[in-house]
Specification:
Length: 133
């Protein structure tokens, strides 16, 4: 059985690894895995992301699951938060799109605007229109 002190240490270590705030050193990839995301295919998207991150040997990337991101009609949703940059939200993801996003955005820094719905400094990067692969 864990003590309260053990749980506090786990919380602190996890917080430092995942929520680094303004001192973030790793790229954080968040996949919406609420009921709506799972029904839309978020699990294969998550698996493709983890596989691609491992295949590319990206050690400075943390992939996490979260609950509802809030735009159910655009699920599966993936958010990428890179150090020193604004969050980019990718929508209507598929395993194929997820692998492309990792290779383009995470690996070389090129946002795939066709897959996004995101506002930067008051401007919409892309007025996303749902399309198939």
């Amino acid at each position: 059985m864990k003590t309260i002190e053990d749980l506090k240490n786990i919380k602190k270590a996890t917080f430092q690894r995942v929520n680094q705030g303004t001192n973030r050193k790793t790229t954080r990839i968040v996949v919406g895995m609420a009921t709506c995301g799972l029904a839309a295919g978020a699990e294969p998207v998550y698996d493709a992301i983890v596989d691609e991150v491992n295949k590319l040997g990206l050690t400075n990337v943390v992939v996490v699951k979260t609950g509802c991101i809030g735009v159910c009609r655009l699920e599966p949703i993936v958010e990428i938060i890179k150090p020193g940059e604004e969050k980019v939200t990718y929508v209507n993801m598929s395993p194929y799109k997820a692998r492309r996003v990792i290779a383009s955005h995470v690996l070389v820094g090129a946002v795939m605007k066709d897959y996004t719905i995101h506002v930067v400094q008051g401007k919409i990067l892309n007025d996303y229109k749902i399309e198939s692969d």
